[in-house]
Amino acid sequence: MSAPSFAPSAPIRAADDRLAARLRRQVGQAVGDFRMIAEGDKVMVCLSGGKDSYTLLDMLLALQARAPVHFELVAVNLDQKQPGFPAHVLPQYLRERGVPFHVIEQDTYSTVTRVIPQGRTMCSLCSRLRRGALYQWAADNGVTKVALGHHRDDILATFFLNLFHQANLKAMPPKLRSDDGRHIVIRPLAYCREADIAEYATQRGFPIIPCNLCGSQDNLQRKAVSRMLAEWDDQHPGRCENIFRALGNVSPSHLADRKLFDFAGLGREDVEKEWPEHAEPGDNRTSIRPSIHSFESE
User: Fold this and answer.
1) What gap in Å lies between CA 108 and CA 133, rounded to an integer?
2) Is 214 annotated in some ligand binding site?
3) Taking the CB of residue 59, how many other CB atoms lie within 10 A of it?
4) What is the DSSP string of 94-129?
5) Which of 219, 230, 235 is nearest to 156 (CA)?
6) What are the tens digits of pLDDT across the range 115-134?
7) Of all residues in the chain, what percent are helix, strand and coil, respectively (each to 5)?
8) Structural domains in the chain?
9) Would you state the pLDDT for residue 7?
């Protein structure tokens, strides 16, 4: 039985069609580039009620309708028992869309507010508790892929947060195995810009549910980094895109991580072999470079 169409109240304009087509193309490319979804997968779409997760569900439903492989979708929401949370919104929306869904009820709100002192950032503990509940449901219900709504800007922000505050070159990968080894986590929106997602959510009229726990904390470092990226996007078009492309174009021999490149084993014979007498100045060839997987964003 096909799902009923959820259409925006206003007439669809050509620009709206182009935006939707661009997002679908980017999601399809990310799914293909990283082999995110395979025949017979049961994909759990983590639905928070925010613009990103609504768009993720929309894009995966469109992909499911035309993909060359068959896969299931189930939307899962974690009701964290935040005061004033409109528990009826997501079930009503998902029933109208004809999407299989499940709501996990777990009072993580009380735990977070009890453990974290007032005024301190709650996101870290909240996300760990939320992730644990979602992963457990996935393990108990035959889920093979866990889909999260992180987009390109989330990935870039995480990269800079790790760089600035953890002295670590690490971001959110489009696909990974969870720490406990039981789940494959995918981020189909990895190639999508947040601005495009926000515009698409407005066009579609999604019933957005704001987060009143961590979303209202204005002093988050992530928000500061997001503002920086937004300024770059505005003042230097293409800079963020280049940084994102760089995450998939890594040269370990030109960094300083001894675990990724054998600097100690790089001897004179390697230099002579790679740099013949006729080599031109500025030639960047290297003799030992581990095989890496790269990806393009367009």
Assistant:
1) 9
2) yes
3) 26
4) HHHHT--EEEEE--HHHHHHHHSPTTS--HHHHHHH
5) 230
6) 766 766 666 667 777 888 89
7) 45, 10, 45
8) 14-248 (3.40.50.620)
9) 39
Q: Residue holding tokens 């998939």?
A: 248
The answer to whether 240 is annotated as binding is no
Starting at the edge strand that comes first in sequence, how are the strands of the sheet with 145-147 ordered?
A: 101-105, 72-79, 42-46, 145-147, 184-186, 175-177
Tell me how far CA of residue 160 lies from CA of 17, 156, 263, in angstroms: 33, 6, 26
Annotation-wise, does 123 bind a ligand?
A: yes
- Please report the beta strands in 166-237, taking only residues with DSSP state E, as ranges in sequence order: 175-177, 184-186
Identify how many contiguous H helices and E strands the chain contains and give both numbers: 10, 6
CA atoms of 143 and 99, how far apart (whole Å): 16
Strands (E), 151-282: 175-177, 184-186
Whether residue 38 is predicted with pLDDT greater than 80 in this model: the reply is: yes
Task: Identify the residue whose tokens are 């947040």.
Answer: 194
DSSP state of 237: T
Residue 284 has pLDDT above 60, yes or no: no
Question: What's the CA gap between 247 and 171, in Å, rounded?
Answer: 8
Length of the chain: 298
